Amino acid sequence: MSVELNHTIVHARDKRESAAFLARILGLEAGAEWGPFVPVSTSNGVTLDFATVPAESIVMQHYAFLLSDEEFDAAFARIRQAGITYYADPHGKQPGEINHHHGGRGLYFHDPAGHGMEIITRPYGSDEPSAES
């Protein structure tokens, strides 16, 4: 059996709010509450289990999601429609812009708990060959 990431726990101030937020942006569904978690599953089988914890114990994490061009367009439209601030860079120095790294498109935004979320259309290191190649 090959090694695969199966799930991770995402700390939130409100697990339902954070799970619903991410699911809405990505065009996914938040699952039914399961024990202390509200799951959001991705198409490659990884589940993000949102858990409510005290706000002072939340440490900002980064989560990056690889989307098709069509999924990116839809997610980007939902981000803009919701008035969510987004950035071309992870440090928030380029608000209202997207990037074109690795031959694709990407952007960063924050979830309700302050986690850094990223959506990209090309994995890191997958630059398309230039016309000179």
From TrEMBL:
Gene3D superfamilies in the record: 2,3-Dihydroxybiphenyl 1,2-Dioxygenase, domain 1
Residue span(s) of domain VOC: 4-122
InterPro entries per UniProt: Glyas_Bleomycin-R_OHBP_Dase, Glyas_Fos-R_dOase_dom, VOC_core
SUPFAM superfamilies (alphabetical): Glyoxalase/Bleomycin resistance protein/Dihydroxybiphenyl dioxygenase (SSF54593)
Alphabetized Pfam families for the sequence: Glyoxalase (PF00903)
Name the record gives this protein: VOC family protein
Originating organism: Streptomyces dangxiongensis
Organism phylogeny: Bacteria, Bacillati, Actinomycetota, Actinomycetes, Kitasatosporales
